[in-house]
Amino acid sequence: MYVTVRRGDSLWAIASRAKVSLAELIKANPGIRNPRLIYSGQRVALPGSETGSVGSQSAAPPSSARPRHVVVQRGDSLWVIAQRAGVPLAALVPSSGQAKKAPAPAPAPKETGGGASPRPGGDGRPWVAEALRNPVGIFKQQYRSRFNPTGPLRSSNCGPASLAMAVKAFGLEPKGLTVEQSIDRTRRHMTGNTDDGDAVNEGEILRGALRLGLKAKGMSRGGLDAQLAAGRMVVLTGRPVGAYRTGFPGYPSFTGFHAILVVGKTASGYVVNDPLSRRGPVRLSREQLAAYWSHGGGSGIAVWR
After folding, report:
1. Which end of the chain is more exposed for a tag (fewer CB within 10 A), N or C?
2. How many CB atoms lie under 10 A from the CB of residue 107?
């Protein structure tokens, strides 16, 4: 038996609805390589059902199987298509291990009135260096505060707010937007709505980043330092628990899955813009940040320009 992923779903939410453990659900879907990255419309096998127990939906089709065709969308890669279809990447790649090169997609339309002009270098280092000098200049809070005077009293906008900070850091935010307008704009590109209570997933963050003109890729747990060294920022998934919270006086009581923007790494630690922070940007040690991903997080979306 399969269920269809709805917008804002996570494997944890699906497991709760189906009254099964998260571990059982992950085991029943070996083709989902990153349990934190699922897509609206994707089918997920429930454990204990005849179909799900053999993992036929996730396994690569036999050579005699008739292929199913999909239309490549702007920003797609074979990895993204495989995740959306719930099949392993190997099922999409020819046996030689070489995929045919597809024509480059048409560039996304650019909005006028944006920020900084492109800079030489071919990566995000110039923008990252500037954001590290002044991280409060890109900081956005997901609820009403001195950082966001027109924001909602409560919201599930950690993902949109974190991505909006990166969009601003890389010079792709139109001038004149309020913080809340910036977050709403980012959410529309991610989900098509401006519902502050609609939780998002990593697939929607990836889609929003590409639609907003950033380069982006999924990042597995353990890849943070390499992405930061390459001049990229990371929208990082985790839970604000343990030592992580010690870096944020007055942090809200929330301890569920959360998204933050890791701006970069300096000699004194990681510069983190957490949209729930009441004090703005903070510098965290490796141990503090490790506590954030110690309860099932650590994956994310790396973004650059």
Report:
1. N
2. 8
Quote the CA–CA distance of 84 and 165 in Å, as a whole number.
26
In eight-state DSSP terms, residue 49 is S
**Greatest Cα pair distance in the chain:** 62
Handedness of CA 222, 223, 228, 230 (dihedral sign): positive
| Domains in the chain, CATH or no CATH each | 2-63+70-91 (3.10.350.10), 125-304 (3.90.70.10)
Predicted TM-score (pTM) of this structure: 0.64
Buried b (16+ CB within 10 A) or exposed e, 58-88: beeeeeeeeeeeeeeeebbbeebbbbbbbbb
**Consecutive sets of 10 residues in the chain, 305 residues long: mean pLDDT of each?**
78 81 82 74 72 30 50 60 56 44 41 42 75 95 95 94 98 96 96 90 94 95 94 96 94 92 95 96 96 90 96
Can you name the residues that pair with 273 across neighbouring β-strands? 261
Q: What is the DSSP letter of 86?
A: T
Does residue 205 contact residue 10 with C-beta atoms inside 8 Å?
A: no
